[in-house]
Amino acid sequence: MGPWRCLLLLPLLAPAGRAQQQQFMEYVERRLTLLEERISQWHDQSSRYSTELRDFKNQVLGMLEAAEKEREAMRAEAESAAVRMDRLEREVDYLETQNPAPPCVEVDETLMDKQVATAKQRKNEKYTKLTDCSDTIASVRAMKILKRFGSASGLWTKDTAGSSERIYVFDGTANDTVYVFPRMREFTLFSATRKAARVKLPYPWVGTGHLVYDGHLYYIRQQGQAFQVIKFNLANKTVVDSSVFPAEEQIPVFGLNPSTYIEVSADEEGLWAVYATKEDEKNMCLAKLDPGSLDIEQMWDTPCPRENAEGAFVVCGALHVVYNTRPPSRARVQCVFDVSGTLAPEDAALVYFPKRYGSHASLKYSPHERQLYAWDDGYQIIYRMEMKKKLEV
Question: Which residues does UniProt call coiled coil (predicted)?
Fold first, then answer.
């Protein structure tokens, strides 16, 4: 082909080359655009991942810091607990050196049989008085309603053998915590128990027949079919002694208070226990207690019936039983039994209590104050008694 022919083909080949070049450039641009989109997507994902990683790092650092603080707090508490434990061990060691080990309070059937036999030998013997007390109750001189506290049944009292101003409150017929108010004012003015100390007993009580006497709490514990008198030291919070009450097949002592099986009372002569058994289920029995050893010194069958009885107390060696009716009415002392024989039941004055809310759940006589601490349907009442000589009645 000659040169003049090549010149003729050049105009024809030029558009085809430009078209290919244009397609190539478009292809390159599409690839670059796709690459830029991927780079931008990667950048966005990388930025998001970086932010999440930074937040996670900050969160982990915060958790580690909190965990470190908790570890330090737990270490401080453990060190404090170790110090308190060491102190407690030293105090326990000291108490063990100062106080004898608490007695075993499990029921010993052999010991119980022996106590029953010994008590029966002394039953209904003549009582020789320890004091020259010859007073008896003539009437209720005054009544004061303090407040309403706790449940319908319970008891409240002072130490019946001392001059302490503390008020001891037993709420309910089955519990293990005694409230102790420092004075009558704190008990009267405050409805809550924030002003009261709490004494946790090693065993729960039953009924409302308990007593505070000479710095000790004498309370009743039921274990199976047997009943125990527990002597608890209120100062060092330990059980000093205990005794299975030497009576067989006991039944509730008061017809209107079925939860009370033993009523522990105090007078000028010391401690007494009022109880009842199936042997003579109609009438009550009375026993003289030794406050030191809890032994039964003497026992008596009384002519005072259990039916419609709501409470009892002892004054100068004479048992006074308070009666009511099942629909609550006016309570009255209707049976008096004098263990010394100086006051015949028919010569005793019939003492009436003012009609209040229901029936008495407990009546605690204070010998040195000559008044009764009563619990009537949740109300705490003081009865001041008018006394006379027995020969004048």
Answer: 57-98
